[in-house]
């Protein structure tokens, strides 16, 4: 016949119609707007569609079906209080050596189970940490 052997082994190229598949993905993403491609893939498999991760990830990017990101914000500061607000005396201070002025700050650090408070005392001249403490909850005096 005069044809190469690889001609018979080659799969003919056919256009893939993904409209039904993309519509199924869009309805899943609309119903569960915070689901990423892994959960969308699991939902499609539950509905009987055999899909792999590459078949799901590409349409998610191309059709902008990315999940909406949740922001978990924990309010740790209450600025609406009747307590006195003291002036910042360190703003005008001129420091000429170590251990003349210490500054302190408290912050919260997010961990797996929630967050912890970290209090740090810094030497203003050398920026060296003089002391620190951490606790799972704030202790009010």
UniProtKB/TrEMBL annotation:
<dbReference type="InterPro" id="IPR036397">
    <property type="entry name" value="RNaseH_sf"/>
</dbReference>
<dbReference type="Pfam" id="PF13276">
    <property type="entry name" value="HTH_21"/>
</dbReference>
<dbReference type="InterPro" id="IPR025948">
    <property type="entry name" value="HTH-like_dom"/>
</dbReference>
<keyword id="KW-1133">Transmembrane helix</keyword>
<dbReference type="InterPro" id="IPR001584">
    <property type="entry name" value="Integrase_cat-core"/>
</dbReference>
<feature type="domain" description="Integrase catalytic">
    <location>
        <begin position="94"/>
        <end position="141"/>
    </location>
</feature>
<keyword id="KW-0472">Membrane</keyword>
<keyword id="KW-0812">Transmembrane</keyword>
<dbReference type="InterPro" id="IPR050900">
    <property type="entry name" value="Transposase_IS3/IS150/IS904"/>
</dbReference>
<feature type="transmembrane region" description="Helical">
    <location>
        <begin position="101"/>
        <end position="122"/>
    </location>
</feature>
<dbReference type="InterPro" id="IPR012337">
    <property type="entry name" value="RNaseH-like_sf"/>
</dbReference>
<protein>
    <recommendedName>
        <fullName>Integrase catalytic domain-containing protein</fullName>
    </recommendedName>
</protein>
């Amino acid at each position: 016949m005069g044809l190469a052997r690889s001609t018979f082994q080659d799969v003919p190229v056919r256009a893939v119609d993904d409209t039904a598949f993309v519509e199924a993905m869009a309805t899943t993403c609309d119903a569960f707007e915070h689901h990423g491609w892994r959960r969308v893939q699991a939902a499609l498999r539950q509905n009987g569609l055999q899909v792999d991760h590459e078949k799901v990830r590409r349409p998610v990017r191309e059709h902008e079906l990315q999940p909406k990101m949740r922001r978990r914000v924990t309010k740790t500061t209450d600025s609406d209080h009747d307590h006195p607000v003291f002036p910042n005396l360190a703003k005008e201070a001129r420091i000429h050596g170590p251990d003349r002025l210490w500054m302190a700050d408290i912050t919260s650090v997010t961990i797996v189970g929630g967050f912890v408070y970290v209090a740090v005392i810094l030497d203003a001249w050398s920026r060296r940490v003089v002391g620190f403490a951490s606790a799972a909850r704030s202790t009010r005096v």
